[in-house]
């Protein structure tokens, strides 16, 4: 029976991923309906904590965007990328990583992809190289960002004081070194641009040749005072979140009682609640001090993306959690001994689920509780955390498609066999190195 249920689970995720947008959530809910009414599965708790964290964090990022702060940050990143164009394969992914780490969302990479493609092409560097590893950088930045829902979700699952800081201590350096390995892996990938037959054919087009020969120009000007103030408030917000995670003894403590979204049973505040309060309060401060209207925030692109993310997480994670809960004994019996003896093998299971879910937060919420059930230690859970970034494997994620569209030279592409696309090599290298280093760093920090 478990195999039939697994097929239904994967089918709902695959069909939802093909539909894109809220399709993943509604197909997850269809699978949930089949599980409950067809297989009489008892519904698990819905992922309310992750959904609320997404609402809080993305609202803050959307306020930053509406105030002009996000555009200002992208302008700063653009200057860094253009400062040394001959080293763009190494500079671009690290610039993207730190911008997404700061913002807590990979969506900001869309503004940088055309810049990376333009700079690389005009320096006659194959754009596939910096574009592919930069897209991967925008994903892995979320596993360690204090402003990402995925990091907050894992910290909540591990549920001990200082969990968020431990995640950052291990995942940030391991992912940075993984990115370095990924950049090295693609530094000589493919033919040089001038030798690429597709590029040489495109150069016969006068309009394309004119674009290639046009000089590099600075696109963005200086940020306004309003935008800079928004960035300052956002920076203070991140600092406060990090401090609260690092020094939980500074937080209010209440009488022990029933646990809820805000407090644990022992009366201590949950980091999820702390993050939600700080980030939404920061949104209010940005609106007041930068005179950004709520209507402008609601109309921001990131705010609209939040609705899609919430629906997707609600449907697919609730369905997955119900499947895991119903088959907990069977899964523990089948995987328990293997995972206990070789904790890294759990990364493969997380990786496979991440391929289909297209959401780091959803994959974290669906799979990491299973890791706890299987007896994985906290260092092991953190080490395998980067595996949730497997959304590059199936080339349907928006960041991948955007990179392909922005590369006017045609070097960034999906291969004949679908999986042999431009992002596979850097993605596998980055995650493999990051996970291996995560286990190594865990022995030092724990």
From TrEMBL:
It comes from the Bacteria. GO terms for cellular component: plasma membrane. Pfam families: DcuA_DcuB (PF03605). Its main location: membrane. InterPro entries: Anaer_Dcu_memb_transpt. GO terms for molecular function: C4-dicarboxylate transmembrane transporter activity. The keyword Transport applies. It is found in: Cell inner membrane. Keywords: Cell inner membrane, Cell membrane, Membrane, Transmembrane, Transmembrane helix, Transport. The keyword Transmembrane applies. It is a multi-pass membrane protein. The chain crosses the membrane at residues 6-38, 50-70, 90-113, 167-187, 229-251, 271-289, 301-321, 341-358, 370-388, 427-445. Coiled coil: none annotated. Belongs to the DcuA/DcuB transporter (TC 2.A.13.1) family. This is Anaerobic C4-dicarboxylate transporter. The lineage of its organism: Bacteria, Pseudomonadati, Bacteroidota, Chitinophagia, Chitinophagales.
